[in-house]
Amino acid sequence: MKNTLLIVLLAVGLVANGQIQTPQASATASTSTVVGLTDVKIDYARPSAKGRKVFGDAANVLVPYGKLWRTAANAGTKITFSDDVKVEGIAVPKGEYLIYTWPGAAEWTVSLYKDIKLGGNTDGYDKAQEAANFKVKSEKLTEKVETFTVSIGDIAADSKSAKVQIAWENTSVKFTVVADFDAKVMKSIETSTKVNPNNYYAAAVYYLDNGKDLKQAMEWMNKAMEGNPNPQFWQLYQKARIQKGLGDKAGALATSKASWEGAKAANNRDYQMMNEDLQKSLK
Asked: Under 8 Å CB-to-CB from 188, ≥6 apart: which residues?
């Protein structure tokens, strides 16, 4: 009896240790970035063309035009926003959504779907679960994309927007995500400066860079430099920019020169060059 039990245990162990791992037919992928102050993340599966025609009207294509598509393999593509955003101008609350699409030759219809449990079961699609529905133009790619790819790029200079791109075979579509962080920053300024006076500098620079009240920016910058007989060269540089914005060219020039001297003493060539450019603009 003992011998029989031992043989059974050995057999089970061999089966457990002898399992073969093979690659998934459609590998999973994830991409994420920060737009403004908002985390945008996309999780999806990546099917490959493998010599097949992907989009079109023919009977043998993988994704027929005009038909609802889960936009990937397996459970589809999920996009997550950590804050409220606007997608193609439509307000979308923070949360998780599935990306469903209806591909077309010239344009696609895109839907952000609230019930992520639906996954790839497109037969259960319910229009009432749409958080957004919009159309975007389809573009032809010059180089073939063998494996389905979703990416986040084209981040704006002010960090307030980015584009989500869906690309496969020779087709690409993009849609815009806008994350306005101004209200969050303004609230942070209000609370943080009460807790830590050093935050006055960050508040002043934010006001300067975003075209807000420069008199308030100057007040905060002066508070940030208060009690310091030797202000830092980077503080002086930003103060000079505020003075320029307020029309005080003489004051801006004097402050910028002091900043240049401080940068030179610190062997910081970047701030020396920035001050040199600023001084040229004041002449």
From this structure: none
Number of domains composing the chain: 2
Residue whose entry in the numeric block shows the structure tokens 């804050």? 83
Hey, what are 250's tokens?
Answer: 């003489």
Instruction: Give me the pLDDT at residue 146, please.
Output: 96
CA pair distance 112, 108, nearest whole angstrom: 13
Cβ burial 145-167 (10 Å sphere, 16+ → b, else e): beebbbbbeebeeeebbbbbbbb
Query: What tokens appear for 199 in the block?
Result: 């935050």
Q: Is the Cα dihedral 46, 51, 56, 58 positive or negative?
A: negative
Q: Is there a single domain that holds both residue 33 and residue 170?
A: yes
For residue 120, give every residue at least 6 positions away whose Cβ sits within 8 Å of its Cβ, in sequence order, or none.
Answer: 70, 73, 74, 75, 76
Q: What is the pLDDT of residue 4?
A: 56
More confident residue, 212 or 41: 41
Q: What are the φ/ψ torsions at residue 183 (nearest 5 degrees)?
A: -60, -40
Q: What is the CATH number of the domain that holds 201?
A: 1.25.40.10
To the nearest 10 degrees (0 to 180), the angle between helices 182-195 and 199-209 is 150
Whether the pLDDT of residue 274 is over 90: the answer is yes
